[in-house]
Design a protein that fits this description.
The structure is a homodimer.
Chain A lengths: L1 H11 L7 H12 L6 E8 L9 E2 L3 H10 L4 H10 L6 H8 L7 E4 L5 E2 L6 E6 H6 L1 H25 L4 E4 L8 H13 L4 E2 L2 H7 L9 H5 L11 E2 L9 E2 H15 L9 H13 L1 H8 L10 H11 L4 H9 L6 E4 L1 H4 L9 E8 L2 E2 L16 E7 L5 E8 L11 E5 L6 E3 L3 E4 L2 E5 L2 E2 L6 H14 L2 H4 L8 E5 H10 L6
Parallel strand pairs in A: 6-7, 6-10, 14-20
Antiparallel strand pairs in A: 1-5, 1-11, 2-4, 3-5, 3-18, 8-9, 11-12, 13-14, 13-17, 15-16, 15-20, 18-19
Helix pairs in contact in A: 3-7, 7-8, 7-15, 11-12, 12-13
Chain lengths: 491, 491
């Protein structure tokens, strides 16, 4: 695995995966003597995707890997120098050469968490220049991962817990890493596996697949398999006459698919016999109608691939409501490309610099940022279901279970009171001054966490169409700070 | 650049970026003694994207790189062994260890070509097992690159040749490589550049950018720049009093944006002074109203980024029709995620094996494949505009300029005659038995080729809404072969 990991690490560490303006701003900060000012940025989204009331957060492992590997090589600095004015002070490039994330601290929701608008997914603190440079890569790594995980979670909610959902979209993904990201995070969001072998190799995603149509068309029937008698599985009786079994099985499949009595093409028979010779155990499984539910049927996989362009939320709901006998469903384009909404639209905003809270002033209240370094809590009911997420200033005391507190729901004109039965601290410390503080959980664990979290969410919020919005509220102190920094409050 | 190229080559060479069923089929072919059968596959799409009548072909350079680097390492083979039945013959894995593309031949359209439904973008020939394994990576590499290039070409047609179009979508891309692919191929499709620095470094895409809102919010006004007097550019007169100039300039920008007389926040003034100190030449340019057209104005870039979530084809058309003074337009989400249609839906079909033509039999005529190894020609009018694309069997003589020939338009019941003034051979030989046969043109050259090709396309086909479909026709021999292999022709 070492070579693979090296390639991945190299790919992850591409520090120029950023917008040029991050670099020109870096020069601006440096020239103003502010490169090392301590800055706090928050990454969040403004609206849940797909018309829903929840999102899953994903991509933390990629962000951590990026931060820890972040370093500008000589070739990178030379390239940047070629894009900046020729009279730029060489000392700036010396500064860039010495950059890394050894003074950067990252707090984040756990991977697979429920996430809501305005609640930070990531908090990134460190020298202004370097945390500014991280903006684009972090947005890129979190946005799509969270979007596809949320998309997968919605499809899982529609399918119910039993149906086997496979992601088959690598060929439709937006670039190779788009495919790898999609396979990884659709699994995190609730799929059972993927056809993408690389996602299995690099991320441990369960992989699945049998055969495609080209295998069938490659046989004309004249290719007599060298040994059409299938040896028995260990201690499982006599040899099997494959061609005869394939004939019976193809008839069954045709009947199952409602195709009536069709005479399979001789090439089809030969192809299945050849496949059975390669996978005798799996094929014997196919002959057993119970096992049809445990193994993918080659013919059905053909169907699912054909259908995969069209299996969207609506079609999946139809398949499920029909109580279809098919319990494995392959989804390609509509899980990986998220056609309902192809981008989560995250933002990365400066909330504090040199200890002073900052706020983006704008007339659009949705785009107004929340100033100051914050703590975030999820207030829960006695049954463990979330009541609301509370944002407050980092220095305020934590809310206590059983104690009533007054909070300002975002966008509301009036405060409300709430008495949580339980309180969860949302943002954990993952990287402190460049050092990993706790191990990242395995992907399968984050997947289970996501499913448990979704299970606790009230049905009204979990509903996919016209859900009730989940409340995010500010503490009184934070609300007061917003007021004091808003333009209308100035004289 | 060596280290970068290594990282890229490693990333490109990930041979397990494929669907598991390619591997199970490989075992099936091998077990049937057919691994080395000579096979011909064609990669094409069925319908032009976005409701248009043309597509651009892109991704060839990535395919060539993938083929040339293709090789399964020991760790890859071990991983595959862990996913196949434990009793799989070890000789199969030995076969996999020895695989490469040294017997694979690739023909393709030139990068940036106009492409139409059913006309092969790629023809891949070689041993059945290996060319089957290439299916998923080639579909992944061609599909999105072509889609985003076509999307960019449409936006360029709307914008006209003069407007400066910048791709700003890295943060909204579907994974890091999604961003790199989007930046590269939106440039190929007709954009002027990208904000993505890595696309500049690795692909030579022009990069651009100035500053974002966080730079402004990071200043409160108390940060007095150390030297507010700007030294003159070489031989350009006296020193400039920056704060005074910034004040004037901000007023002009506000007026230009129709914001009326606003008093800029002291932090805004300080931010622009700091920026001007870092980029004195560019800023002096900004002070000159002519140069506003040559350099991006920081304030306008803020606007374009804000707007970038919303600049789609319709909004761009509106901006252009208004004759807006803005001549640089940044587009993010809608160019990189292709929300109108997020996948091109390419297919990779076996057309010939062991010299025998093969055809996928299906009741859906659109999904029927065209059998046999083919040649493709573009028949042109005297003015160089394409009349139709002709597919014929590889062994047929080429159509000749000035000679009338009878062809069967796809889907038509009757043949038609056509007399081309010029004939172009469409599919060039790029890789012959693993060896690159001709250098790949630089990206900028492919970009210019795409623009020239689009310029020759008749307006009726180039039109973005309700265009006239461009004809793809079969030779009489190919038409006869299709007929002989179709189910209805069998007794």
């Amino acid at each position: 695995m070492a070579a693979e990991e090296d390639a991945e690490a190299l790919a992850a560490a591409r520090p120029l995966l950023t917008d040029l303006y991050q670099v020109t701003m870096a020069l601006g900060y440096w020239r103003a003597g502010r490169a090392r000012d301590h800055a706090d940025f928050e990454l969040s989204f403004r609206r849940c995707p797909f018309g829903g009331a929840f999102s899953l957060f994903a991509g933390l492992r990629d962000c951590v890997r990026f931060l820890r590997a972040f370093h500008l090589r000589d070739t990178d600095v030379q390239f940047l120098a070629s894009k900046l004015p020729p009279d730029t002070d060489p000392a700036f490039f010396e500064h860039l050469r010495g950059l890394d994330c050894s003074r950067v601290t990252l707090r984040a929701l756990p991977e697979g968490s429920l996430a809501f608008p305005g609640v930070p997914l990531l908090q990134v603190s460190g020298p202004l220049l370097v945390v500014q440079l991280l903006e684009t890569p972090l947005l890129c790594l979190v946005g799509y991962a969270s979007l596809v995980a949320t998309n997968a979670a919605r499809l899982r909610l529609i399918a119910g817990p039993e149906k086997r959902l496979l992601e088959l979209g690598l060929r439709r993904a937006q670039g190779p890493d788009g495919g790898l990201t999609a396979s990884t995070y659709s699994y995190l969001g609730g799929f059972d596996g993927s056809s993408n072998v690389l996602a299995g190799q690099l991320r441990g995603v369960p992989v699945a697949g049998t055969l495609a149509h080209s295998f069938i068309t490659s046989f004309s029937g004249s290719e007599v398999p060298p040994e059409p008698m299938l040896a028995p599985a260990v201690s499982e009786g006599p040899a099997v006459n494959l061609p005869a079994h394939v004939k019976v099985w193809l008839e069954r499949v045709c009947a199952h698919l409602g195709l009536g009595k069709q005479e399979p093409h001789p090439g089809e028979r030969a192809a299945f016999v050849a496949y059975a010779l390669a996978f005798p155990q799996a094929f014997q499984g196919l002959l057993d109608s119970y096992s049809v539910r445990r193994f993918q049927m080659p013919w059905l996989e053909r169907i699912s691939i054909t259908v995969s362009n069209n299996v969207d939320e609506e079609e999946l709901a139809r398949l499920v409501q029909e109580g279809s006998e098919v319990d494995g469903i392959g989804i390609g384009t509509s899980v990986v490309t998220c056609p309902q909404q192809p981008s989560l639209g995250c933002v990365y905003k400066l909330v504090c610099v040199g200890g002073q809270p900052r706020m983006k002033l704008t007339e659009d209240p949705e785009k107004q940022t929340l100033p100051g370094k914050k703590a975030a809590f999820r207030l829960l009911d006695a049954d463990g279901s979330p009541l609301l997420d509370l944002l407050q200033l980092a220095e305020e005391p934590s809310p206590q279970p059983g104690q009533e507190l007054r909070v300002w729901p975002r966008g509301a004109q009036e405060p409300r009171t709430v008495r949580p039965a339980q309180v969860e601290l949302l943002l954990g410390l993952w990287v402190h001054r460049g050092q990993l503080c706790q191990p990242l959980p395995p992907l399968a664990e984050s997947r289970a966490f996501a499913q448990r979290s979704l299970g606790h969410l009230r049905a009204a919020h979990r509903r996919l169409q016209s859900p009730e919005q989940y409340q995010v509220a500010l503490s009184e102190q934070l609300q007061a700070l917003v007021g004091s920094l808003s333009p209308r409050s100035s004289p």
